[in-house]
């Protein structure tokens, strides 16, 4: 039997340890990233996910690993209370079990695990997530009204899931039934998904604005994030929550206050009060100066987000050597040549955000004050 030299053996041990560590590295190649806005921290959340403890295909710790790879701030594993198709293989009378496993996996990380469950009924009641609950088992009831009442008793934030889902709404449009109206009136329904998986529902956004519901975006993931989103060149849908600090308590407070923007790739949906400052913070003016001997202002812009940003010129000035519609790739830069006709000490850069909506078919116009050197 050969004995390895000490130096070689030590190096091999270090290499093996490094390799094993790399196998459990949570770093992701394309983390979801958005800037803070004035007065608030931007918390990236996905509050609608499933595992084998309801109708998903993965163990709860995988959901934690996926979130860590993408740089998420908070997730919730919202298992169906009433629909448990894997019960023959994974008997689990405790509806809190998925949360407990995820919480243990996230113990050494800053990822917030929010306890939640999905109340599952046929239309017109539909599906709703209750998050920030204290005990999922107590939400189990034959009557949906009792489940919602118990969620309210536990101080839960409740939102209506995929209201346009064609399996329950064949036309693909949400129907605000008497049941939802009663829950809203009773303070038992607080939000609505306007983005679920790959679907953006303008009609759900209209309901959110009409009823004062918080705008939500979620992956509703059942398989793997990599398979359903990443390998297709997409990020998962998320809800950006604008909280006064990074804690579950403040995230909950922000959700109740409606301080959110739903995001899926280049699509951003939210109330103007939060979407406008998010877009303003998302674009950085790197430099601005006149091209020598001209009245053409050269402005370099940087996209500070993980989403591509699509804009249209909304100024009185036109562009030189550029389309009025342009895209700045995630994390990338773009140079505008603005024909100001005469040299200005400063201008207001006004752009219509074509990938963003503050109401159905309504794009916000965002302004940045630029000094010309």
Explain the overall architecture:
The protein is α/β, with parallel strands linked by helices. It folds into two domains: 28-265, TIM Barrel, CATH 3.20.20.140; 282-371, Immunoglobulin-like. Helices cover 24% and strands 30% of the residues. The strands form four sheets. The chain has a seven-stranded mixed sheet with strand order 4-2-1-11-12-13-21, sandwiched between helices. Strands 3, 5, 6, 7, 8, 9 and 10 form a seven-stranded mixed sheet that branches. Strands 14-15-19-17 form a four-stranded antiparallel sheet. The longest helix has 18 residues, at 6-23. The radius of gyration is 24 Å and the shape is elongated. The termini are far apart. The model is unreliable at 1-24 (pLDDT under 50).
Strand sequence of the main sheet, in spatial order?
4-2-1-11-12-13-21
**Going by CATH, what is the homologous superfamily of the largest domain?**
Metal-dependent hydrolases
Specify the helix fraction band: 10-25%
CATH architecture of the largest domain: Alpha-Beta Barrel
| Total of helices | 9
Brief characterization of the structure:
This protein has 373 residues and is an alpha/beta fold.
Attribute tags:
disordered N terminus; Immunoglobulin-like; 22 strands; 373 residues; TIM Barrel; alpha/beta; 9 helices; 7-stranded mixed beta sheet; elongated
